[in-house]
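Lab manual, section 2.4: Encoding a predicted structure.

Procedure: take the sequence of the chain (143 residues), apply the prediction step described in section 2.3, and record the output as structure tokens. A sample record is shown.
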Amino acid sequence: MVIEQTFDQLNIGDRANVSKTISETDVYLFAGITGDFNPVHVNSEYAKDTQFSKRIAHGVLSVGLISTVLGTRLPGPGSIYLNQTVSFLAPVYVGDTITAEVEVIEKMPEKSRVKLRTTCYNQTGKNILQGEAIVAFKKAANQ
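Recorded output:
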């Protein structure tokens, strides 16, 4: 169940996450949607000769999982994703299960915004991405 939270209901330290196993289909659909057919993502023969030794998923695919958490779990529906900084720390391979987690680290009441730590890690606990996001809340009906 998706619950819309208000700015006042959020607390520093609140967390939420979502997990997804990255499939061949995910990589090819993402390439098709974005037009990013970099051979490191879609060509196994090419990828063998890279530093990764095999194909990797698009880094922004993991960022998309963060968007899922923000829009459906914390803060949830009605929130607006304004800003994201990100550092990609390790590759994601087809078959990896990625968990995207967000944590409220600052509340900015003057603009009804929150800053969140954003992290993605794989099935072994390896941190593959870290950053911060800023999210705004829709105006309440009485504002």
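Check your result against the sample. The domain at 15-137 is CATH 3.10.129.10 (Thiol Ester Dehydrase; Chain A).
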